[in-house]
Specification:
Layout: H1 2-18, E1 46-47, H2 63-75, H3 77-97, E2 103-113, E3 121-134, H4 139-205, H5 211-246, H6 260-263, E4 270-271, H7 274-280, H8 282-303, E5 308-319, E6 330-338, H9 344-411, H10 417-451
Parallel strand pairs: 1-4
Antiparallel strand pairs: 2-3, 3-5, 5-6
Helix pairs in contact: 2-4, 3-4, 4-5, 4-8, 4-10, 8-9, 9-10
Length: about 475
């Protein structure tokens, strides 16, 4: 008998020796790197190394925007969902840690029997069982570390959601103010169009222009009216979207009309170092924490191949009379060792966890590369749109001079009222283009703030494991 036990133990030891339980220390997955950005704005005064304000939206110098952001952070339901997920992940840490703690079960019962020809019998019992799977190799601790990494990842998810929310509120608000100015310009253009129509009708009545000219101008007036209605629809839709971001039912939130170029200032352009970007952007931080989580789960799966030791203690009492139930007790201790060397499921799980580590690492690399692209695109777009805005500003200034000279020529009788109207219409079109460019530069600035990780402080995953 002893020889059989020794032989079994030797076989189990050999099988255990074939299991790969080596666990390398976690290292941040290697990813493509950048030494600098291809475009650094000449007017940059803000550095992503740590001087981007956590309240970066205040750089637009609009108190109403500040109030919208505050309201959105308090009321947005997507952000509340992300916050609730943090609570879930935090609770799951305790759930994972409970795997290393003893468990106790207490039970009581009674047995009542009556057979034909036999006396009625009854028996009462009371018992307890305490079980403890001893975490000799740290398998449970690996699970705790994995869940802790997931907790930190959900915190980073919340930060990413926060950054996305503030960006969406800002850009939507800018769109509403842009539409307000567009509506104002469109109303003036429509008024001018109606004046031109009246002049054409008078000239037609005097035989100076054909009727087709009047019809053409009426069609232009119809187009301007249709565009005005569409602009108002766009504003209502944008206002509904902003209300949803704030957590308010659509239709119940209204933004007072304003002028974008007067209310919102373009701030200095932020810039930053690529290496700092990896520790600043919440989505990159979350991706790395999930790579760490996969690494810890792989370690847990590998350690599951090792023998486990458990202790089971039992105690109880039984009696035919309820009053005698506590007079005598029985206790027992049952230590045991489980060697999972012949369990193919455990080995397969270890292989699966190794493959999942590779998935998490590739996801991290993808997130890093996408972040570099987002920053580069934001810098390119912002630079181009700033230059376009300057060209449009000069175009508007020149058309203003043309308009003033045309008015003077009208007073001198050199040009007609129609020439004045046409000049003003060209000026209005250029002003609308300048307005759209202003809004685009604001949105590009928001995108760049978001791409650089907003104002979140750098976080090194390796230093936040415990």
């Amino acid at each position: 008998m002893k020889q059989t036990i020794l032989l079994s133990g030797l076989c189990a030891g050999l099988l255990y020796g074939c299991a790969d339980v080596r666990i390398a220390e976690y290292q941040r997955p290697d990813a493509p790197a950048k030494s600098s950005w291809s475009r650094q704005p000449e007017t940059s005064t803000v550095s992503a190394s740590g001087t981007i304000s956590p309240q970066w939206w205040t750089e637009f110098r609009d108190p109403y925007l500040d109030s919208l952001v505050t309201r959105a952070v308090a009321g947005n339901f997507d952000l509340k969902i992300l916050a609730a997920r943090i609570d879930v992940a935090n609770a799951q840490i305790a759930e994972a840690r409970a795997g290393a703690l003893p468990t106790a079960d207490i039970g009581a019962g009674a047995s009542l029997e009556k057979s034909t020809g036999q006396k009625f019998t009854k028996q009462f019992n009371l018992g307890t069982q305490v079980s403890w799977d001893i975490d000799v190799w740290g398998r449970v601790n690996k699970g705790v570390q994995a869940q802790t990494a997931e907790f930190h990842a959900t915190e980073a998810d919340w930060r990413a959601g926060y950054l996305q929310l503030v960006s969406s509120v800002s850009t939507t608000y800018f769109q509403i103010l842009q539409l307000d100015e567009q509506i104002d310009h469109q109303q003036r253009a429509l008024a001018k169009g109606k004046q031109i129509l009246g002049i054409y009708e008078s000239m037609r009545d005097n035989g100076l222009v054909p009727g087709t000219q009047v019809l053409r101008q009426r069609a232009e007036t119809n187009r301007l009216t249709k565009d005005l209605l569409e602009l108002r629809r766009f504003r209502d839709v944008a206002e509904n979207a902003l209300g949803t971001l704030l957590g308010v039912p659509a239709g119940e939130f209204k933004v007072q009309s304003g002028r974008l170029q007067e209310r919102v200032q373009i701030p200095a352009v932020p810039s930053g170092l690529p290496l700092q970007l990896l520790a600043r952007r919440p989505d990159i931080v979350a991706a790395e924490f999930r790579a760490l989580e996969a690494h810890e789960l792989m370690g847990q799966a590998k350690l599951a191949q090792l023998p486990s030791i458990s202790l089971t203690g039992r105690g109880g009492t039984a009696s035919f009379a309820l009053g005698d139930l506590l007079k005598s007790f029985t206790f027992g201790l049952l230590p045991s060792i489980n060697i999972p060397a012949l369990n193919p499921g455990i080995k397969a799980r270890a292989k699966t966890s190794e493959a999942q580590v590779k998935v998490a690492e590739q996801d991290y690399r993808r997130t890093v590369v996408a972040a570099f692209e987002e920053v580069e695109n934001a810098l390119v777009s912002l630079d181009a749109h700033r230059q376009q805005k300057e060209e449009l500003r000069m175009q508007v200034d020149q058309l203003k001079l043309v308009s003033a000279q045309t008015e003077a020529q009208l007073a001198a009788g050199v040009v007609s009222q129609l020439d004045v109207f046409e000049t003003e219409r060209s000026l209005l079109a250029a002003q609308l283009a300048l307005l759209a460019s202003h809004q685009q530069v604001l949105s590009d600035t928001v995108t760049l703030y978001k791409a650089l990780g907003g104002g979140w402080a750098p976080l090194e995953v390796a230093n936040a494991r415990n």
